[in-house]
Amino acid sequence: MLQQILEQKKEEITKLETCYSLKRDRKKTSLYKAIRASEASPALIAEVKKASPSKGTIKEHYVPAEIAAEYEQGGAAAISVLTDQRFFQGHIADLVAVKQMVSLPVLRKDFIIDKIQVLESAHIGADAILLIAAAMTPQKLHELYRFAHEHDLECLVEVHSVEELQAVLNEFTPELIGINNRDLRTFKTDVNHTAAIASHIPEGILTVSESGIKDTEDLHFLRSHSIDAILVGETLMRASSPAEGIRMLYGS
Q1: Which of 35, 96, 117, 141 could form a disulfide with 43 if both were Cys (CB 3.0 to 4.6 A apart)?
Q2: Confidence at residue 117, expressed as pLDDT on a 0 to 100 scale
């Protein structure tokens, strides 16, 4: 599935504009600082997500800006917006709408493999982007990481295994590392995956657990392993309301 998505991305990249007018005066909001400052433990990156390749449509009534506003009111530290159109039914317009609605940092979650996508992310107002280790070589990831920082974008570097983590750390030291609990071969999720990999992450790097976080038990487990933040989409999107989803997850 990942390979299929990446092939689609390569095709999309050829159609992107070659230049963007970047608004240098627009103030960026730091995802890193928002996680550090969060009163909730672990901090919540709440995801605006309509569908997924494995589950199909998750949310029928889908108004990204309204969902994000509820997330902010519910105590989220940051918002993640899925912008992939083909496989997740997202759009860059969703991120634009969310950024205009909330004061929180906004993470663009997509399959970013080229500098033109980084420029596009800065252009549409993202504060941070996701870079997936499984999608490229560590050298390429480092190149995009540096390029993103040159354009005032923070990066959440996502890994799926200890081997991927070590390959990244051998190349450079990211500020934020996300551990995806989803097995890319079976698409099954297990939060124990985070615990197994997190122990290999050096101190000083903020750790984010992603995917498959379903209830308070999962949250308590991740808290016991000193995880700094969780990225949650489907669980919140399936709740009766985004705010209620946050309350149920955090047991408040």
Answers
A1: 35
A2: 94
What per-residue confidence (pLDDT) applies to 195?
96
Query: Tokens 């991305």 identify what position?
Result: 9
For residue 97, CA distances in Å to 33, 40, 101, 148, 154 come to: 23, 26, 6, 22, 20
DSSP 129: E
What CATH class does 28-250 carry? alpha beta
Model confidence band, residue 14 (pLDDT cutoffs 50, 70, 90): confident
What phi and psi values does residue 5 have, to the nearest 5 degrees?
-65, -45
* Confidence (pLDDT) at 135: 94
Q: Residue 128 in 3-state DSSP?
A: strand
Q: Which two tokens stand for residue 75?
A: 């105590």
Cβ atoms of 5 and 111 closer than 8 Å: yes
Q: Which runs of consecutive H residues, i.e. helices, occur in the chain?
A: 2-13, 31-37, 64-73, 92-101, 115-124, 138-150, 162-171, 192-198, 216-224, 234-237, 242-250
Chain centre distance of CA 165: 17
Could you give the count of Cα atoms lying within 13 Å of 93 in the half-sphere of its Cβ? 4
CB 47 within 8 A of CB 109: yes
Which residues are registered as beta bridge partners of 207? 177
Domain regions of the chain by residue span? 28-250
Q: Which residues pair with 47 in a beta bridge?
A: 80
